[in-house]
Amino acid sequence: MTLQYVYQEKKFSVTVRWTDESQRSVIYQEIICQLQQLYGVEYCSFLEIARQLDQKVDNLYQQIHTYSNEHKAISYNPAYRRVLLQSYASIADYIEENIGADTGEVSIVVKELFLQILDKLKELVEVYLADHTYQSKYRSRRRNYEQEVEAMEEIQSPLDFESVILQMTDIARMLEQLTESQRSRLVKHIFLGYTLQEIANQEGVSNQSVSASITAALKKLRSILEK
Fold first, then answer.
1. What DSSP string runs through 168-219?
2. Is 119's pLDDT higher than 70?
3. What single DSSP character describes residue 21?
4. How many CB atoms lie within 10 A of CB 221?
5. Region 27-45 average pLDDT
């Protein structure tokens, strides 16, 4: 990931990894290591802060992973939403507590880069929660519909069948607006029930790459729906 920042009144960029080979977060530590290589040991004092932040990011990822697995079996739980948001808030609070009040040039550069990662995490959480809330409501409506059909013990009428076909056509048209990679990963994850890690293993890419692709796809679909 490429980040932009200002140092000594000039604009620079730095490229960092989100995760290491074991899929553990290293994004904040990468930022400090890159700054240290560029500007010297004065950035070393932030390395422990970066380690703590990466641990909090891992915890956030774990919350999302747990939420994703449970969400397939149980109804949407607002209490779990609060837990997920608290995990995100702990990252923001830790940044503010440790470098928020420091006005030195070194701290300003670190905070600027750290907050860019925080913004990306916020977008990930918001998109994820919005998508799963919608899916949960949809599943609930679907269960109610199936129960009503079973109670009536009637064969679906041609009019109902036509309505289903039209809905399927609308979904297909929306999916056509995505890139081939986004469409494939979204279908596997949302409709076929594959986990992010399973998709990543199939395609030989990182879990983070799959997550970012699906997040972008969902964001684009929502923008289409809102038009």
1. HHHHHHHHTTS-HHHHHHHIIIIIS---HHHHHHHHT--HHHHHHHHHHHHH
2. yes
3. T
4. 18
5. 91
